[in-house]
Each structure stands twice: as C-alpha cells, then as structure tokens.
Amino acid sequence: MPPKTTPVVSMRTMGLPLTLLGCVLWLLVASPVFVESDTYRYASAILAIIALVHYLKMEDRPRTNLLGWLCMGWGLYVVVRFAAIYFMTPGHDLGASDWLFAFPFFFPILGVAFGLYEAQFERIVAAFFVVAVVMLVTTTHFQLIFAGETVKPLIMNNQIHGAVACGLILISASFWLLHYMTNKSSNPAFARFAYFAAPLIIIVCFIAIYGAKSKGVWLALIVTLPIVGLVALTYLRRKMGVVIIVCAAALLLAGIYTVRHNLNKTAGPTVTAAITMLEGIDDGRDVSGVVAGAIASTATPFSMDERLQLWYNAGELISAAPWFGWENQWLERWHQTRYANVQYTLLHNGYLEMLVRFGAFGAFVMTTILASLVVSVWRAFRSGLIPRAVLHTYALGLLFFAFTLLSNSNNRLAIGESLALLSSAFACWCNMRINLKPTIAHESTSPHLTAAKQD
Predict the structure, then answer these.
(1) Which residues form the O-antigen ligase-related domain (predicted)?
(2) Of 288, 308, 334, which marks where a domain is finished?
C-alpha cells in the first residue's frame, strides 16, 4: 500500500467561511462548461491570492522547481514581448486575446490553491455533477433535437461551444461513475448519487452533442470514445465489461442509424469536399493550390470555405515568421493576407493560433510544459496519490479537447481557458506532491485520496 497522502498546504489556518468560499470558487473556475462567461477568471484570481497569502506564511514551503519556473518564465516572456511590440509599433498593436497565452504564469500558484482544498474535492466534484444534471436537463431542447433542428446546449454563445462542453462533461461523468463502481471503500452517499446521475448525464450529453451538429466535436468523439471504451474495460470484470461496452456501443450505433439521414445532411458535403481535396494532394498538386481551389469551388460548404480561408491566411503569416511568430502584430499583418476579407479573425484551429503568435519556439515551450504536466499526473498516479479514474479523466479529457482544436479555436474560448487553468492547477499540485519533502508533511489525511489506494 502506498504511503498516506497529506496536504501540501495546511488548512489549520483556514476557517469554515474561507473553506466554503474556496469550494465555491473552484466550482466557478469550472463553470464555463455550463455558462459561457468570464467568471472563472475572477474566481481564479481570488484563489491565486488566497494561495499566495498562505504560501508566504508557510515556514517550510515547497520550493519552485523547474516546471514552475518554466511556466512563470513563459508567462513573463509573453507579457514582456507583448509590451515591447505595443510600445514599439506606430499603431500600438494589441492583437486579439494574445495576453491569454500568459496564463501559464499562474499555474504553479493555482497548484498551491488546489492543495489548500484537496480534502474538499470529492465534495466539489459531486457538487459539479449536481449542477451538470440540473443544467443539462433544464437547458436541452429535446423536442427540437428530435425534430432535426440545431440547438445550443447549455448556456453558450454557439452550438460548437456547447458541444465541446458536453463532450468534456460526458468523459468526466463516465470515469466518475467507474470510480465509484470499482472503489468499494468510497463514500456510499457519493456513490449512490453517481449511480443515478452519471448515466443520466451521459445520455443527455450524447443527445445534446447530436443536436449541436458540430462536425468537429463529432470527429473528436469518434476518435476518443473507442479509447474511453477500451480503458473502461480495465475497470470491470472481463465478461461484465464486454457486455456493458457492447450494449452501449449497440445503443449508440442504433441511435446513429436512426438519425443517419440527418447526419449525412449535416456532414456529407464537408466529407465530400475534404475527400476531393485529399485526392488533389494525392495526385501531386500543390497544397496551397488545392486549398485555393476548394475555396473557389461552389461545392465547398460555407463553414468549411471560411475555415479554409482562415487557415490559408494563417499559413501565410506562419511562413513569414516561422520561428517566433508575430504575437500582437499578427492582426495588423492579417490585412495583407490573400483572404483578408474573411468574416472572422478567430482562426478556428487552436494550433494555428499558437503558431501565428509564437512560432515554432512557442509551440516547443508549450509542448514541453504540457508534457511535463502530463508526466506529473502520471507520476502521481504511479505513486498512489490519485485514483486511476482521475488520471483517465485528465488524459482523455485533454485528448478529446486536443482533437476539437483541429477545427475550432477552443483554447481562446472561456471553456478552453478554464480547462487550462483547472487541469494545470491539478497537474502542478501533482508535481508538488510527488516532490514534497517529508518535513512539509501534515498528519491529516485526505479521505478521497486515501480511498485511491483501493482503486
């Protein structure tokens, strides 16, 4: 059995009001999956302040390691470069949401904030799913969906955002349920609620994702769900697991068959246009020429046509500054691109958003940070600090989100920023926990983490 886990930061100095406040703040950090607003930013800022105050009061506080310095160094680089470009350009270029890429500066201190409330997170997670049940049941327009209409799930600015949110909730609910199904030492009250709530959440999320008609989210689920199914088999007895997965897959396929005509109407033209482009590239034609031809073609669906124009423009900017990008100068340069009159400047591809602003260097640094965070969570699992369901939720949630970035700039939306802050705070907490010196340990034990040893 792994050694008992102990809080990184002692909560003895925190009274009930501050504890309750922190729990509410963490729910607000996650709130963009229900309501698209900037509330999570203010909640994160307050949590960072609370954590900083407690951290500075610690007599033997955890020292910032290489990952922490890398996160803060990158954030500082983004801010300093932004300021330099702003003051040095005649038009004082502001770009568009470029400062959001400085968020990694706050990851380490939010990791401390996570440690402050680690003993409360089983309750926070349960409260999150209470909100999920209420929001999904009350905001999903079932009648319109079954009539073939497009809907906006939850309270979002458009249907794509809602579909992404439902995908994240679906994956989280799946492993939340599996955790309680296989961890017999867990709190029975939370387990009973999970048995009731999780299946309902999963079913409604599937219905809402279908109703949103987001082809990018459908594609992300097509890739992610088989992996979720295979991982789920490791939680259950082989025969039971196979039966459950087969039945779930059969129901899903039956649902897809039932609405196949609507699916074909929504995604068919896009698939056809994409195949035509791939055939052109396979014939040896120049990629930029193939893309330009698809943009000019009347057979290309409108939404795909706009994305291709955005991606073509992004390619021009990246090729002009491939190593370090343009940061807040990119929007000024945008007006010189071939399709500058396209309706949007949101690039509808999260990876291009990074490359346009920060080039290959930025992509390398951000990839290094992400890889380090993922490794920290993996090491925390291997050390018995977190349940495997938490690891799988973290990894597969990020994988699903990564696929959605191929067709939409979700990292520039509230849901993406919130996910980055929340998941990275958790990963930084894992990083601190596995590097924790014995002298910092506190004798109290987090009940839900202790239960992880039986998982």
Answers:
(1) 201-365
(2) 334
